[in-house]
Amino acid sequence: xxxxxxxxxxxxxxxxxxxxxxxxxxxxxxxxxxxxxxxxxxxxxxxxxxxxxxxxxxxxxxxxxxxxxxxxxxxxxxxxxxxxxxxxxxxxxxxxxxxxxxxxxxxxxxxxxxxxxxxxxxxxxxxxxxxxxxxxxxxxxxxxxxxxxxxxxxxxxxxxxxxxxxxxxxxxxxxxxxxxxxxxxxxxxxxxxxxxxxxxxxxxxxxxxxxxxxxxxxxxxxxxxxxxxxxxxxxxxxxxxxxxxxxxxxxxxxxxxxxxxxxxxxxxxxxxxxxxxxxxxxxxxxxxxxxxxxxxxxxxxxxxxxxxxxxxxxxxxxxxxxxxxxxxxxxxxxxxxxxxxxxxxxxxxxxxxxxxxxxxxxxxxxxxxxxxxxxxxxxxxxxxxxxxxxxxxxxxxxxxxxxxxxxxxxxxxxxxxxxxxxxxxxxxxxxxxxxxxxxxxxxxxxxxxxxxxxxxxxxxxxxxxxxxxxxxx
Amino acid sequence: xxxxxxxxxxxxxxxxxxxxxxxxxxxxxxxxxxxxxxxxxxxxxxxxxxxxxxxxxxxxxxxxxxxxxxxxxxxxxxxxxxxxxxxxxxxxxxxxxx
Lengths: 473, 98
Hints:
The complex is a heterodimer.
Chain A lengths: L14 H4 L4 H4 L4 H5 L8 H6 L7 H14 L11 H15 L4 E3 L12 E2 L1 E3 L13 E4 L9 H14 L3 E4 L6 E4 L6 H11 L15 E2 L13 H11 L1 H5 L9 E4 L8 H4 L2 E7 L4 E2 L1 H9 L19 H4 L9 E4 L2 E4 L9 H5 L4 E2 L4 E7 L13 E7 L6 H17 L6 H8 L1 H8 L32 H7 L3
Parallel strand pairs in A: 7-8, 8-9
Antiparallel strand pairs in A: 1-3, 2-4, 4-6, 5-6, 9-14, 10-13, 11-12, 14-15
Helix pairs in contact in A: 5-6, 7-8
Chain B lengths: L4 H13 L4 H14 L7 H11 L5 H13 L3 E5 L4 E5 L10
Helix pairs in contact in B: 2-3, 2-4
């Protein structure tokens, strides 16, 4: 199979050409006006939130509200008061101790079953401008690589066609546009796809927007090209992303190395973590350099205070979780078979230690947040797989997992819950994978991987009657 | 034995064509949606209902049929944001969730 190739060349977004608002319109209030600004509802509890030490969304929302108040009538297509009404309703929710949003509905854009989430106020008479207040998820560029031209263009479009409020970024990495009316959905979709070259993301029982770490673009630890794999699978599984037929949500996330900067192990049904199957590369001269103080440990990441002289024993060897490193006679050695990929030594001495060169991915399955059952971390299912374009081996595995989940999963059952219901041994059998010690999170965690006679050379004989003569029931 | 006639003929047409009959699947989906008391259906429930009538219908074909019915305006998506269901247009569901 060949990799996806876009039909058109990627357009460079130039804000100067795409902008809707002038600088004067964007900066249309003074600090003094903001200080004296009161929204049209009383929001005492929300204003309490502004007094804390951290920047508050309430302050941000007030700025947006003042900005909208001062814009000309024909410079926005949905109600001027959306932000003020949103704040007003939130105050009522605080008073009542319950939400006043209704969620869900039949809104969407043509042909897509996701990316737009219907939101409605259940106090529409009191807060008419947020009676319809739908959310749009915009698929973020890989690794969230976008420039201010792109962002400002999205912001202008959203100010014009929506509330102007955004959440950057949602859990799957989407740019989340908060609050618009049904009539604006198709124009927003058109502008995003045709003008900005950006699709909307996943929601509902879909493949959710795949998300990756910064990968080989900026990081020397990346064991595979996370952006490439993320992009390829996003394109390859467009049908799964936009036309829901899964039992529930399904998330891919791509971490280039076990540092796990997108936390795929905790946040995705299918987590891809870069790894290597050969040995950690060691530059012995650089190790000596760290000991001599020629290089700052952790690449200077913790240089904010004086930690004293670098101590290899205390700061690296003693902290190795499997104690597989030693430094003798000026030589650092690693028992690589015992390495659990904690990345601590590599992070501490990046000049001296590097991941191996025979790289690929580990695939872990079943992480989820605690909506139905409790939260779950992912379980390692494929210890190592090469991750090279066009990724046919990975696609084959994905489809095998989906086939099983779509066949056996109950409505609203996540993959992790299904795996738990079936048990790891049965799941491995279905995936046609042999159980391996790598899959065990902690010793004796799961004692129920049982041998079958055909798995044991020579088999065995078992006489239950004879056994019972020695062991009463 | 015991299999009803439509299922046999559906099976036969699958065998002859090597692919599930799209019109037949579409018809089964609409019939299921119209006969149900519910107004919203999970994909899985649609799949099970279709496979009762067209036993060899593959999940992928049922999804394609659902998509075609969405595109021609017969079916609509209903999404809570976390899970998605299908419904018949104009029956039970308006744009407002209530």
